[in-house]
Design goal:
By secondary structure, this protein is an alpha+beta fold. The protein has nine helices and four strands. It has a four-stranded mixed beta sheet with strand order 2-1-3-4, covered by helices on one side. Helix 1 links the parallel strand 1 and strand 2. Helix 7 packs across helix 8.
Length: 217
């Protein structure tokens, strides 16, 4: 198999979801850390910008192919390595899982990632308290919707969809990591908490945790 290299930062939830996907599929890979803060951010170096013009993580290199955007990377992995699929086999199920995953990846995460926080701080001169309230508001709004979509739905099982973890779980768990980090109370989201516990009990999720990365700290 051609080598797989993931350019990652330990606290990046987008990189975290790709680490989960790689682990669920049992794909051997090498992690290359890209520190998003040190010396102004290694993602802004000329060498890394040549790989990813957005200057974001993750980037995945599979042989000679270079891929950006976590959701596109996960789709690619699912197509190229179909064993242990991240999406269910039926069209309705795939649509449901994609909707849950995109709720996190498109609606919650972009509003509280590092570059947004830096813009609020450096350009808009927002106070630390205002930045925290911004983050907590958008997390709470998105997670409340996800709780409603999952709670009591016939397709929800041990995991977001049935009895096997997949794309939605790979997106949810990193976002809940962010919620813990920023001090968002999760009591209103019992279904999300239950799924998080089930996921983190699995080796694929445990190995992907930020604190278990080679660049953690």
């Amino acid at each position: 198999m051609e080598p797989i290299e993931l350019f990652s930062y330990w606290r990046s939830s987008a990189a975290y979801r790709v680490r989960i996907g790689l682990n669920l599929k049992g794909l051997p890979h090498r992690i290359t850390p890209v520190h998003l803060v040190r010396e102004g951010g290694e993602q802004h170096s000329a060498a890394y910008a040549a790989l990813n013009p957005q200057e974001l993580v993750p980037t995945l290199r599979h042989g000679e192919r270079v891929l950006q955007q976590s959701m596109a990377i996960l789709d690619y992995l699912d197509e190229v390595f179909p064993a242990t699929p991240l999406l269910p086999g039926d069209a309705e199920g795939r649509a449901r899982v994609r909707a849950l995953a995109q709720l996190v990846a498109c609606d919650i995460h972009p509003l509280n990632n590092l570059r947004v926080m830096q813009y609020l701080e450096r350009t808009l001169q927002a106070s630390a308290e205002a930045r925290t309230q911004w983050t907590l508001h958008w997390m709470a709004e998105g997670l409340a919707a996800m709780e409603t979509l999952l709670a009591g739905h016939a397709a929800t099982g041990t995991f977001c969809h049935g009895e096997q973890p997949g794309l939605a779980d790979a997106c949810l768990v990193p976002q809940l990591y962010n919620a813990h980090r920023f001090g968002l109370g999760l009591a209103p989201y019992p279904t999300l908490q239950r799924i998080e516990v089930a996921c983190l009990a699995l080796p694929a999720f445990d190995a992907a945790r930020p604190e278990n990365q080679i660049d953690a700290g």
